[in-house]
Amino acid sequence: MNIDKAKKRIAKQVKKGFNGYPLISLEYFGKISDCATQVIISFTSDEKAKPQEQTFSSESDVREDEAIQSALVKIIERTNANTVNEIDCISILK
Length: 94
Known about the structure:
Helix content: 25-40%
Number of helices: 2
Largest sheet: 4 strands, mixed
Distance between the termini: 32 Å
C-alpha cells in the first residue's frame, strides 16, 4: 500500500474520535523528537480488558516506512476497531 494512502487511512480513523471499543492506540518513540524509530500499537477489546501491544521498529522514521504503515492499517481493519487514538508527539527513548 502507498505510504500516503496508509497515512490518510489512519488519519481518517483517528479523526472520528472515541466511538467505544475495540480501541487501537498508536504511540511513537524515538531517540530525538524529529524521528520516530519505534511505534507501539495497542489493542483493547473492552473497557476492562488489558491492552495487547505490538512493537514495530526501524532504523529510519517508522512514520515514513511503507511496510510498517501498511501493517498498522491492516491491524486496524482486521480488529474492526471502533476507535483509533494516535499520540501526536514522539516520546523520547532513554
